[in-house]
Structure formats: C-alpha cells, structure tokens
Amino acid sequence: MINNDVLRRVRYALEFNDQTMIEIFALGDVEISRDELLHLLKKDNQEGYVELDNQRMDAFLKGLIIYKRGVLEAPHGQSKPAEQPLTNNSILKKLRIALNFKEDDMLNTLKLADFAISKGELSAFFRQKGHKNYRECGDQIIRNFLQGLTIRYREQD
C-alpha cells in the first residue's frame, strides 16, 4: 500500500491535527514542517503531492509508538533489535504495537470493516520471514484494518 495513504488514513482514524503529526514525526527523529506534511497528505492525483518514502514512514510509525506508549528503554545489557525493511507486515505490526492491540482487538477491528480472518491467518503476518507459517500481508488487509480503525475510533459518537 502507498505510504501516503497509510499516513492519511491513520491521521484521519486517530483524529490527529497537523501539530500532533509533526510531533509524532519528531518523536521518530524526523523534523518536518507543516508545508511538508501537507504535501505528504495530498492524494497522488493532487498538485503538490510528495511521495512518502519508507524511511520517513518508518520514522512516523516509530514516533506513533512513542506517542501512544512512551519510550521503551532496552533492558540493561541488551541492544535494540536490528531494523527490518518496511513492508505491509511491519506496518501492521507497528500499528498493533502503537495501539496496544491484542489478537482479538485486531480481529474485531477487521470485522468492523466486514473483513473476517482467522487467528491463524492473522498470526501468520507477525511471524519471522523464514517461518513456515509466515504470510505476506497484502494491501487489502492493511486497507481493511485502517478502515476498521476509522470505524472504531471515529464512529463512537
């Protein structure tokens, strides 16, 4: 899925304003101006659209985790895990961590978007790439998860 779409949908679902988005990027060690943010939030057919690269998207997701959960200090004597390339699987995993979702929360959020999968199918997205039950997360899963998030957080009124 296009990083800009994920950014736009997360912003809408969680009702973040421009300043909050800038703060989240800063928590991920990326300084961004309001003008840059507005260009990233445009759709690809709009004038002024700027593509959000994987590095900035990853920084946003890391910042979102810190914004929602706080800074996680590595236990004494342990280093941080090696960085993985940004994929749909890692985007889904980082959103899960940021929102502190358990398996049932993930499944219920997908159900809100009329998209049901089994626990086994869901857990396959969070496995290590070499694992026999690993499965690539497609755009449809991310899209439906983000739609479910929007329903979950915005339609509570």
Which short descriptors sum up this protein?
0% strand; mainly alpha; 157 residues; 55% helix
Provide a descriptive summary of the structure in words.
With 157 residues, this protein is an all-alpha fold. The chain has two domains: 3-69; 88-154. Helix content is 55%, strand content 0%. It is built from eight helices and no strands. The protein has helices at 3-13, 18-27, 34-40, 54-69, 88-98, 103-112, 119-124, 139-154. α2 crosses α4, α4 (54-69) packs parallel to α5 and α6 packs across α8 (139-154). It is globular and about 45 Å long.
Going by helix content, strand content and strand pairing, the class is mainly alpha
Largest sheet: none
Radius of gyration: 16 Å
Q: Can you give the mean pLDDT?
A: 92
Alpha plus pi helix count: 8
> What is the 3D shape?
globular
Tally of discrete structural domains: 2
Topology (elements, then pairings):
Blueprint: H1 3-13, H2 18-27, H3 34-40, H4 54-69, H5 88-98, H6 103-112, H7 119-124, H8 139-154
Helix pairs in contact: 1-8, 2-4, 4-5, 6-8
In short:
With 157 residues, the protein is an all-alpha fold. Helix content is 55%, strand content 0%.
